[in-house]
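Protocol step 4 of 6: structure prediction from sequence.
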Amino acid sequence: MNKPELFYTIEFEDALDTTICIHCSSQLPFVKHRANATCDRCHASLQQPHLTAEAFLRKKISLIYKFAVHTTRANLANSFEIMRDPHIVGGTVFEFKRGNPYGRAAKLPTVRSLRVGVAERRLGNEERKLMDEVLLSYQQCHMYMVSMYLLLKKELLESEHVFSIQEVTMAPKHVACGTHLLWRVTLCTGEMFAVAFADRQLGWLGLVVPWDEYKIMRIDTEELVKYQQFGTKMESDLADGADRSRRPGENDKVFWERLEREKNVQLGLGILGEWNEWRRRWREKRKRRGKRRQGVV
Protein backbone atom coordinates (compact mmCIF):
# COMPACT_ATOMS: atom_id res chain seq x y z
CA MET A 1 0.00 0.00 0.00
CA ASN A 2 1.26 3.49 -0.90
CA LYS A 3 0.84 5.26 2.43
CA PRO A 4 0.66 9.08 2.31
CA GLU A 5 3.27 11.25 4.01
CA LEU A 6 2.56 14.50 5.83
CA PHE A 7 4.23 17.78 4.86
CA TYR A 8 3.80 20.62 7.39
CA THR A 9 3.68 24.36 6.71
CA ILE A 10 6.16 25.00 9.50
CA GLU A 11 8.75 23.02 7.51
CA PHE A 12 8.81 25.38 4.50
CA GLU A 13 7.15 28.69 5.43
CA ASP A 14 10.32 30.79 4.98
CA ALA A 15 10.47 29.79 1.31
CA LEU A 16 7.32 31.85 0.65
CA ASP A 17 9.09 35.15 1.32
CA THR A 18 8.62 37.63 -1.54
CA THR A 19 10.23 40.52 0.35
CA ILE A 20 13.91 39.59 -0.04
CA CYS A 21 16.34 39.40 -2.95
CA ILE A 22 16.84 35.87 -4.23
CA HIS A 23 20.61 36.47 -4.46
CA CYS A 24 21.73 38.60 -1.51
CA SER A 25 18.68 38.33 0.84
CA SER A 26 18.45 42.11 1.20
CA GLN A 27 15.02 43.63 1.85
CA LEU A 28 13.15 44.74 -1.26
CA PRO A 29 10.94 47.82 -1.64
CA PHE A 30 7.23 47.01 -1.68
CA VAL A 31 6.90 47.50 -5.46
CA LYS A 32 9.39 44.67 -6.00
CA HIS A 33 7.68 42.11 -3.78
CA ARG A 34 7.33 39.11 -6.09
CA ALA A 35 8.47 35.52 -6.45
CA ASN A 36 12.23 35.09 -6.93
CA ALA A 37 12.77 38.85 -7.11
CA THR A 38 16.17 40.56 -7.46
CA CYS A 39 17.27 43.81 -5.85
CA ASP A 40 18.51 46.67 -8.05
CA ARG A 41 22.16 46.08 -7.14
CA CYS A 42 22.09 42.37 -7.98
CA HIS A 43 20.02 43.02 -11.11
CA ALA A 44 22.62 45.50 -12.36
CA SER A 45 25.46 43.06 -11.72
CA LEU A 46 23.69 40.42 -13.80
CA GLN A 47 23.20 42.76 -16.78
CA GLN A 48 26.84 43.73 -17.31
CA PRO A 49 28.28 42.97 -20.78
CA HIS A 50 31.19 41.11 -19.17
CA LEU A 51 29.94 39.04 -16.26
CA THR A 52 32.04 37.96 -13.34
CA ALA A 53 32.20 34.20 -12.77
CA GLU A 54 29.78 34.51 -9.85
CA ALA A 55 27.33 36.67 -11.81
CA PHE A 56 27.48 34.18 -14.69
CA LEU A 57 26.63 31.33 -12.32
CA ARG A 58 23.74 33.20 -10.69
CA LYS A 59 22.24 34.33 -13.99
CA LYS A 60 22.54 30.92 -15.60
CA ILE A 61 21.13 29.05 -12.59
CA SER A 62 18.17 31.44 -12.33
CA LEU A 63 17.20 30.61 -15.90
CA ILE A 64 17.83 26.87 -15.58
CA TYR A 65 15.76 26.82 -12.39
CA LYS A 66 12.78 28.34 -14.22
CA PHE A 67 13.11 25.60 -16.80
CA ALA A 68 13.44 22.94 -14.07
CA VAL A 69 10.20 24.14 -12.43
CA HIS A 70 8.44 24.01 -15.80
CA THR A 71 9.74 20.49 -16.47
CA THR A 72 8.85 19.20 -13.01
CA ARG A 73 5.31 20.54 -13.32
CA ALA A 74 4.88 18.98 -16.76
CA ASN A 75 6.01 15.57 -15.47
CA LEU A 76 4.29 15.67 -12.07
CA ALA A 77 3.05 12.27 -10.93
CA ASN A 78 2.77 12.84 -7.18
CA SER A 79 -0.32 14.28 -5.53
CA PHE A 80 -0.87 16.67 -2.64
CA GLU A 81 -4.02 17.07 -0.61
CA ILE A 82 -4.59 19.94 1.81
CA MET A 83 -5.62 18.91 5.33
CA ARG A 84 -7.61 21.59 7.17
CA ASP A 85 -7.76 20.09 10.66
CA PRO A 86 -7.36 23.15 13.00
CA HIS A 87 -6.05 20.93 15.80
CA ILE A 88 -2.95 19.82 13.90
CA VAL A 89 0.20 21.36 15.39
CA GLY A 90 2.47 23.17 12.90
CA GLY A 91 -0.17 24.78 10.72
CA THR A 92 -1.70 23.58 7.46
CA VAL A 93 -0.63 20.08 6.50
CA PHE A 94 -0.26 18.59 3.03
CA GLU A 95 -0.76 14.91 2.47
CA PHE A 96 1.81 13.71 -0.08
CA LYS A 97 1.24 10.54 -2.06
CA ARG A 98 3.62 9.15 -4.65
CA GLY A 99 2.02 8.39 -7.99
CA ASN A 100 2.80 6.29 -11.05
CA PRO A 101 5.32 8.26 -13.17
CA TYR A 102 3.86 6.75 -16.33
CA GLY A 103 0.29 7.30 -15.26
CA ARG A 104 -1.98 10.27 -15.68
CA ALA A 105 -0.35 13.66 -15.05
CA ALA A 106 -1.15 15.14 -11.65
CA LYS A 107 -1.99 18.75 -10.81
CA LEU A 108 -0.98 20.84 -7.85
CA PRO A 109 -3.70 22.03 -5.47
CA THR A 110 -4.56 25.73 -5.52
CA VAL A 111 -3.37 27.06 -2.16
CA ARG A 112 -5.01 30.40 -1.33
CA SER A 113 -4.22 30.44 2.37
CA LEU A 114 -2.17 28.65 4.99
CA ARG A 115 -2.60 28.29 8.70
CA VAL A 116 0.62 29.14 10.51
CA GLY A 117 0.21 28.24 14.17
CA VAL A 118 -3.22 29.62 15.02
CA ALA A 119 -3.13 32.42 12.43
CA GLU A 120 -4.50 32.19 8.90
CA ARG A 121 -2.19 33.60 6.22
CA ARG A 122 -3.67 34.63 2.91
CA LEU A 123 -1.36 34.05 -0.06
CA GLY A 124 -1.08 36.56 -2.87
CA ASN A 125 -0.38 35.60 -6.49
CA GLU A 126 3.40 35.80 -6.06
CA GLU A 127 3.36 33.80 -2.85
CA ARG A 128 1.27 31.15 -4.56
CA LYS A 129 3.97 30.84 -7.21
CA LEU A 130 6.49 30.11 -4.48
CA MET A 131 4.04 27.70 -2.87
CA ASP A 132 3.91 25.78 -6.13
CA GLU A 133 7.71 25.64 -6.21
CA VAL A 134 7.76 24.29 -2.66
CA LEU A 135 5.39 21.47 -3.57
CA LEU A 136 7.17 20.73 -6.83
CA SER A 137 10.51 20.42 -5.00
CA TYR A 138 9.19 17.99 -2.38
CA GLN A 139 11.37 14.84 -2.40
CA GLN A 140 12.82 15.80 -5.77
CA CYS A 141 16.50 16.45 -4.97
CA HIS A 142 17.57 13.12 -6.51
CA MET A 143 15.42 13.80 -9.56
CA TYR A 144 17.25 17.07 -10.20
CA MET A 145 20.65 15.37 -9.84
CA VAL A 146 19.71 13.02 -12.67
CA SER A 147 17.45 15.02 -14.96
CA MET A 148 19.55 18.20 -14.95
CA TYR A 149 22.95 16.50 -15.27
CA LEU A 150 23.51 16.94 -19.03
CA LEU A 151 22.11 20.47 -18.97
CA LEU A 152 24.41 21.63 -16.17
CA LYS A 153 27.31 19.91 -17.87
CA LYS A 154 26.67 21.85 -21.08
CA GLU A 155 25.70 25.23 -19.62
CA LEU A 156 28.07 25.33 -16.63
CA LEU A 157 30.88 22.80 -16.79
CA GLU A 158 31.70 23.50 -20.43
CA SER A 159 31.80 27.25 -19.84
CA GLU A 160 34.94 29.27 -19.19
CA HIS A 161 33.72 30.26 -15.72
CA VAL A 162 33.20 26.89 -14.03
CA PHE A 163 36.09 24.67 -12.95
CA SER A 164 34.21 21.71 -11.44
CA ILE A 165 30.88 20.44 -10.13
CA GLN A 166 30.39 17.87 -7.39
CA GLU A 167 27.29 16.06 -6.17
CA VAL A 168 26.83 16.45 -2.43
CA THR A 169 24.87 14.21 -0.06
CA MET A 170 24.38 15.67 3.40
CA ALA A 171 22.22 15.73 6.51
CA PRO A 172 20.49 19.15 6.60
CA LYS A 173 19.71 21.24 9.66
CA HIS A 174 16.03 20.51 9.29
CA VAL A 175 13.64 18.71 11.58
CA ALA A 176 11.86 16.73 8.87
CA CYS A 177 14.66 15.79 6.44
CA GLY A 178 17.38 13.23 7.08
CA THR A 179 19.22 13.32 3.73
CA HIS A 180 19.44 16.00 1.07
CA LEU A 181 21.25 16.37 -2.28
CA LEU A 182 22.71 19.40 -4.04
CA TRP A 183 25.64 20.50 -6.18
CA ARG A 184 28.85 22.22 -5.13
CA VAL A 185 30.13 24.38 -7.98
CA THR A 186 33.74 25.58 -8.00
CA LEU A 187 34.39 28.56 -10.25
CA CYS A 188 37.57 29.32 -12.15
CA THR A 189 38.30 31.95 -9.48
CA GLY A 190 38.39 29.25 -6.79
CA GLU A 191 35.11 30.41 -5.23
CA MET A 192 32.70 27.64 -4.27
CA PHE A 193 28.91 27.82 -4.21
CA ALA A 194 26.06 25.55 -3.18
CA VAL A 195 23.48 25.19 -5.96
CA ALA A 196 20.19 23.57 -4.96
CA PHE A 197 16.89 23.32 -6.83
CA ALA A 198 15.07 21.35 -4.11
CA ASP A 199 15.79 23.56 -1.08
CA ARG A 200 12.36 25.20 -1.16
CA GLN A 201 10.81 22.13 0.50
CA LEU A 202 13.08 22.88 3.48
CA GLY A 203 12.12 26.56 3.64
CA TRP A 204 15.37 27.77 2.05
CA LEU A 205 14.92 30.34 -0.69
CA GLY A 206 18.41 30.82 -2.18
CA LEU A 207 19.39 28.95 -5.32
CA VAL A 208 23.08 29.91 -5.26
CA VAL A 209 24.73 30.35 -1.86
CA PRO A 210 28.45 30.72 -0.99
CA TRP A 211 29.60 27.29 0.09
CA ASP A 212 31.04 28.31 3.46
CA GLU A 213 27.79 30.11 4.32
CA TYR A 214 25.67 27.16 3.23
CA LYS A 215 27.85 24.73 5.16
CA ILE A 216 27.43 26.69 8.39
CA MET A 217 23.75 27.50 8.03
CA ARG A 218 22.36 24.38 6.35
CA ILE A 219 24.56 21.32 6.94
CA ASP A 220 24.14 19.50 10.23
CA THR A 221 27.39 17.49 10.50
CA GLU A 222 30.22 18.34 8.12
CA GLU A 223 32.02 15.05 8.80
CA LEU A 224 29.09 13.13 7.30
CA VAL A 225 29.00 15.09 4.04
CA LYS A 226 29.60 12.89 1.00
CA TYR A 227 31.13 14.38 -2.15
CA GLN A 228 30.79 12.48 -5.42
CA GLN A 229 31.85 13.02 -8.99
CA PHE A 230 29.42 14.99 -11.12
CA GLY A 231 27.15 12.54 -12.95
CA THR A 232 27.37 9.77 -10.34
CA LYS A 233 23.60 9.69 -9.73
CA MET A 234 22.88 9.53 -13.46
CA GLU A 235 25.37 6.68 -13.97
CA SER A 236 23.93 4.77 -11.02
CA ASP A 237 20.33 5.06 -12.21
CA LEU A 238 21.34 4.17 -15.77
CA ALA A 239 23.02 1.03 -14.48
CA ASP A 240 19.83 0.07 -12.63
CA GLY A 241 18.20 -0.52 -16.01
CA ALA A 242 14.77 0.20 -17.41
CA ASP A 243 12.77 -2.68 -15.96
CA ARG A 244 9.18 -1.43 -15.59
CA SER A 245 7.76 -4.67 -14.22
CA ARG A 246 6.99 -5.02 -10.53
CA ARG A 247 9.61 -7.03 -8.69
CA PRO A 248 8.69 -9.64 -6.04
CA GLY A 249 7.79 -8.03 -2.73
CA GLU A 250 7.61 -4.45 -4.06
CA ASN A 251 4.75 -2.31 -2.77
CA ASP A 252 3.40 0.67 -4.71
CA LYS A 253 5.74 3.15 -3.06
CA VAL A 254 8.95 1.21 -3.79
CA PHE A 255 7.77 0.28 -7.29
CA TRP A 256 6.86 3.83 -8.25
CA GLU A 257 10.05 5.24 -6.75
CA ARG A 258 12.02 2.91 -9.03
CA LEU A 259 9.86 3.84 -12.01
CA GLU A 260 10.38 7.49 -11.15
CA ARG A 261 14.15 7.05 -11.23
CA GLU A 262 13.89 5.32 -14.61
CA LYS A 263 11.72 8.11 -15.99
CA ASN A 264 14.14 10.72 -14.63
CA VAL A 265 16.94 9.04 -16.59
CA GLN A 266 14.88 9.23 -19.78
CA LEU A 267 14.03 12.86 -19.05
CA GLY A 268 17.70 13.61 -18.39
CA LEU A 269 18.84 11.99 -21.63
CA GLY A 270 16.46 14.19 -23.61
CA ILE A 271 16.84 17.32 -21.52
CA LEU A 272 18.94 19.32 -23.98
CA GLY A 273 16.25 19.14 -26.65
CA GLU A 274 13.61 20.17 -24.11
CA TRP A 275 15.86 23.03 -22.95
CA ASN A 276 16.40 24.36 -26.48
CA GLU A 277 12.67 24.33 -27.21
CA TRP A 278 11.81 25.95 -23.87
CA ARG A 279 14.42 28.69 -24.42
CA ARG A 280 13.02 29.39 -27.89
CA ARG A 281 9.51 29.87 -26.46
CA TRP A 282 10.91 31.86 -23.53
CA ARG A 283 12.72 34.29 -25.88
CA GLU A 284 9.60 34.73 -27.98
CA LYS A 285 7.55 35.47 -24.88
CA ARG A 286 10.07 38.08 -23.69
CA LYS A 287 10.11 39.64 -27.15
CA ARG A 288 6.30 39.96 -27.20
CA ARG A 289 6.33 41.39 -23.70
CA GLY A 290 8.90 44.00 -24.72
CA LYS A 291 6.78 45.04 -27.69
CA ARG A 292 3.71 45.46 -25.49
CA ARG A 293 5.68 47.70 -23.13
CA GLN A 294 6.77 49.84 -26.08
CA GLY A 295 3.19 50.04 -27.37
CA VAL A 296 3.96 48.06 -30.52
CA VAL A 297 1.13 45.82 -31.75
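Step 5 (inspection) to follow. The radius of gyration is 20 Å.
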